[in-house]
Amino acid sequence: LITNHNPLYHHLHRIGKSPSPICRRCHLRPKTTDHFLFHCPTHRAARDRLAVACSLSRNRLTLGKLLTSPKRIAALFTYVRTTARFERTLGTL
Fold first, then answer.
1. Sign of the CA dihedral running 71, 11, 46, 79
2. If you count Cβ atoms within 10 Å of the first and of the last residue's Cβ in the chain, which end, N or C, has fewer?
3. Quick check: 72 and 60 in contact, CB under 8 A?
């Protein structure tokens, strides 16, 4: 997630493994790490739970803040698991 070398469409498109970088859930923006974690409307409910678990308001979530403690990292993994976005590539996290 940190380096953007992940199975999201933006990276997959850049390496020739996806025809488009656009998010296939919302069709609004390229599916980057930032979009997946903080902006995609499809994942709003999971993002709200992530913010609560991290004791942050939704608009204060950043990748840097999510990686500051084991509790927040665990909440981030729960978010990723809930969205099932990496399940096909990485299995259950």
1. negative
2. C
3. no
